[in-house]
Design a protein that fits this description.
By secondary structure, the protein is of the alpha+beta class. It contains four helices and 13 strands. The chain is about 25% helix and about 25% strand. The strands form four sheets. It has a four-stranded antiparallel β-sheet with strand order 2-3-4-9. It has a four-stranded antiparallel β-sheet with strand order 5-6-7-8, with no helix packed on it. The protein has a three-stranded antiparallel β-sheet with strand order 1-11-10, with no helix packed on it. A hairpin with a 4-residue loop joins β5 and β6. It binds FE2/S2 (inorganic) cluster.
Amino acid sequence: MAAAEKPPYNRSGGDANLSSHTHVHGAYEEPETPEVISRRQWMANATIAISGVIGLTLAIPIVGSLVPDVGSGGATFTPLDDNGWKQLQTATDKAVQIDINLKSKDAYLPEQTAPQSVWGIKVKDPQKFMRDRKDLFVDDKDTLPYPVVTMGFVLFSPICPHLGCYYQYKTATNSFFCPCHGSTYDQYGARTGGPTARGLDPLPLREQSGVAQAEWIRYAPTVPNRLVISYTS
Ligand code: FES
């Protein structure tokens, strides 16, 4: 009987198949050719470029949402309630409370709506009004950057200039009275008593395409001069 054929061994006595396997494995340890390096570099560059495009696509809207709206908080005109405006036009010498819906937008929040009301008076005697409210017409830093009397009317902010309460109108005396600390104002908003340092604050009024509009301004309380704090409620 023929002896069983022995598997071939390599010179070092190892298995020939093992030797072959070891040889193949060694091929990965050989230096890369310029073509391989160039292809790998191209893949790396392409990956960086694609990542950059994806990053920009995500970053632009994210960054955009974090940048405050430049126009937010700026001065805006709001339509006066139509009924209130008509009442003011037919008013005699009595003050008329007119509703407005203030729209405001803070940097990162959706637009907000806040109901407010302003006081309107008809200026029947402009000379008397200017004498009474000299503080609105002096030719220095107190001069307001908008016309106080528009279309023969004046609008007053409903905020008391003393410390910011809402004052009231007294029909019987045709004057204004603040319940918080007792400041009083005459029919044209001039200070007549109490701790307030100035008269009522006027607001800009205009007519746009047949609609009367007011601009809301909040002034600093307490101080005698009118310093704008904000254009929102
Ligand atoms: S807040 Fe009006 S008198 Fe003080």
